[in-house]
Amino acid sequence: MPYSFTLPNIRKEAAALWHLAWPVLIGQLATVGMGVADVAMTGHTSAAELAAVSLGASVWSIILVTVNGTMMAVNTVVAHQVGAGAFDRIPHSVRQALWKAVGVGIVAALAANLATLLFDHLQLEPEVNARASMFVHIVSVGLLPFAAYRALYGYSASINQTKPVMVIALIGLAVNIAVNWLLVFGNLGFPKMGALGCAVATGAVVWLDLLAIVVWIRISSAYRASYPFDKWEWPHWPEVWNMLKLGVPIGVTYFAEVSVFGAVSLLVARFGVVTVSAHQIALNFSSLTFMVPLSFGIGMIARVGQALGEGNPQRARFASFVGLWMSTGFAVLSALFIALFRHQIAAAYTSDVAVQEMCAHLLLFAALFQLSDAMQVAASCAIRGYKVTRGPMVIQLIAFWGVALPVGCVLGLAPQWLPFAPAEPMSATGFWIGLVLGLTVAAVLLTAYLQRLSRQRAMQPASVAK
């Protein structure tokens, strides 16, 4: 059935996407809120504790987001099965995704602990180095349960059940804030752990999330037609391998982006506690606004995948571009908000005047990349709905490791062996200019890729496009 871009059709698709996305949005905001709480609460202890959380969270975020991307294969697989009405095949796919999660979680935990060796080469103050390393060691115990949780999260979202993950995330945020209050500041007789208290809280919440979603799936009637826990099943390696082939490029795509942001955080550390703290606050708030287009994107995977599963590539194309427009529209509003209220945002995070001023300056660049960031995540999620992951991976690698980081290093560090480097290092400002350019390249290339892919599939017979 062809879909024309008329106002009634757009409203209908936008409403359907919003129905899926708004619980995901609240859940994502709650998840990011944990990071906001960590930074904000340690920001009111000392600059050294804030720097430790900033550096430790940089490594944690890189690994966490890569795991998240790698596990997202289940979203696409289940969405296609839903569209095809093959609910009997879903339990097997979910069980295999959980086996995949075990391997991914173990590898991720090892990688996180090894990554702390990088701190020894960043000219950090010894106290900050030790606290940041211990933060990662503690929080890494949550990576295996996180991988399993994301497998069940993807299954739930792809059968149009997004409200459970919202409720679970909100509970997790409340628990995280409460445990932070006890352990970061040492209230009610608990030890004052500072940055390490944040790590304990985060690790505990991840285990709580996994337990909560398992219980929810077990007791809710919405999962009866595709209930995955009715029997034990050993790994089926061809199925696990197929999910890895689909998921690893997504994980690399996520890694390409978040690792550049993390690498910038590590490189900025050499410019002192004020700079690294301001950078982390600006990045943290940008991550908060990014959750809106990301939530649209997660909903788009389900909408596009279900349309293709039912053999309707025209509806898949239509859903892709409605979601892209919605993400872009929000980005315009968030850019204006950040530009207008950047000083108030900085003050909400820290009472340090020097950090506030630096942060307000960096938030101007955060406002600039809102549009391109929203476009690239929406386009990449729509492409994943087509079960295409390698093309976006290449584009992201080029945009972030070929453009954003090299440009940032040249401008931020000003290596004098390069004839075109600036005379003086631009510090964090130079790195943020690189991020703006990298995101712009990603947005342009991914949108063009989506346009070409969706047009090709829409012109194919339904049996081929599926």
Automatic annotation (TrEMBL):
Superkingdom classification of source: Bacteria
Record bears the keyword Cytoplasm: no
Segments crossing the lipid bilayer: 20-40, 52-78, 98-120, 132-153, 165-184, 196-219, 246-269, 281-302, 322-341, 394-418, 430-450
Broad class of the protein's primary localization: membrane
Example GO BP: monoatomic ion transport
Membrane topology, as annotated: Multi-pass membrane protein
GO CC field: plasma membrane
InterPro entries reported for this sequence: MATE_fam, MATE_MdtK, MdtK-like
Presence of keyword Ion transport: yes
Keyword annotations: Antiport, Cell membrane, Ion transport, Membrane, Transmembrane, Transmembrane helix, Transport
Molecular function in Gene Ontology: antiporter activity; xenobiotic transmembrane transporter activity
Subcellular location: Cell inner membrane
PANTHER family noted in UniProt: FMN_FAD EXPORTER YEEO-RELATED, MULTIDRUG RESISTANCE PROTEIN NORM-RELATED
Designated name of the protein: Multidrug-efflux transporter
